[in-house]
Amino acid sequence: MRTKRGFTLVEIMIVVAIIALLAAIAIPNLLRARLNANESAAVSALRTVSAAAISYRSVNATYPTNLAALSGSVPPYIDAVLGAGAKQGYSFILTGVTNTFTATARPQTFQTTGVRSFFVDESGVIRWTSADAAATVDSAALD
Q: In angstroms, rounded to a whole number, what is the distance separating the alpha carbons of residues 130 and 135?
């Protein structure tokens, strides 16, 4: 009497096909979730930059001229990673003069690390834009 040892080629092919099907469904969802997380982190970082710039102005009577001014203060208003201008797939730029400042967050690799760019000024309202749209106030980004 023969005993069955191992799997047949057909059984292995079925298992591989099932795994490939599950991967084809799961990978795009995983990539989209990462992209959404990057965008949420960019909005949060811009909120932090906006609050830090307003706090900086209350002490120094002028808005900071760049992110390094916020991260180089003692004590620092923002962390050194954000002060370097890049965090979680986004590049950040802050420009300021006496009575105004603007801060932007742009994806480092469009369509991979993010699909929207964000902007905030002294008003504190975060606006976003995509490659083919004008700046818009996004109530979901403000929550």
A: 8
